[in-house]
What we know:
This protein is of the alpha+beta class. It has two domains: 6-156, START domain (Alpha-D-Glucose-1,6-Bisphosphate, Chain A, domain 4); 158-190. The chain is 43% helix and 32% strand. The protein is built from six helices and seven strands. It has helices at residues 17-25, 27-32, 109-114, 123-140, 144-154, 159-189, and strands at 6-13, 37-45, 48-55, 58-68, 72-77, 84-92, 95-103. It has a seven-stranded antiparallel β-sheet.
Amino acid sequence: MTDEDRAWVSVDTKLAPDELRAFCRDIERLLRLNPLLEVTSFVAEGGGFALVGALDGRPLATRASLAEDERGFSLAWEGLLKKATRLDIEPLPQGARLVIEDDYSGASEDERRTRLDEVDRSLLAWGQAIGGFLPRWRRWGGFGPWRWWTERFWLRMTPQGRRVARMIAWTTLAEFAVFLMVVAVMLAAE
């Protein structure tokens, strides 16, 4: 039996490796992109942070240390079944790849079975959210108002709040389009 117990997801981006590294340095933003992680408190502490919130509806309160090396970043979690999260940045011919790997090794087989409900099932959704966000970041990240809106307002909302706000915005846009069509038909009928 192997002691390795890992899960990973990779995200291909059009960002250059240095741009992707700079993006990943803001670990709070990166964690808030996870659509299944509700961050209620994020406090930077020296070389790490304290995180309070909910993951998949389960309460979560932990600390993590953050380290950067030539491959990317490493988060060492305290008190979780997940011991570490590795963020590797690999150059591609046209951009870079972000590989996010959760490491669950180090726990005994019995402990893994008893704490199975602590397994982070959000990894795939998180990778998809990052993959969907990075093209917008690449296009609009240099535009101050968009960046302010995204970092200070949008990502501070809960994932459910973002979904509801997005639904309201699309509904309002659809209502306005229907209103314009009705006005156009009325003007054409005259």
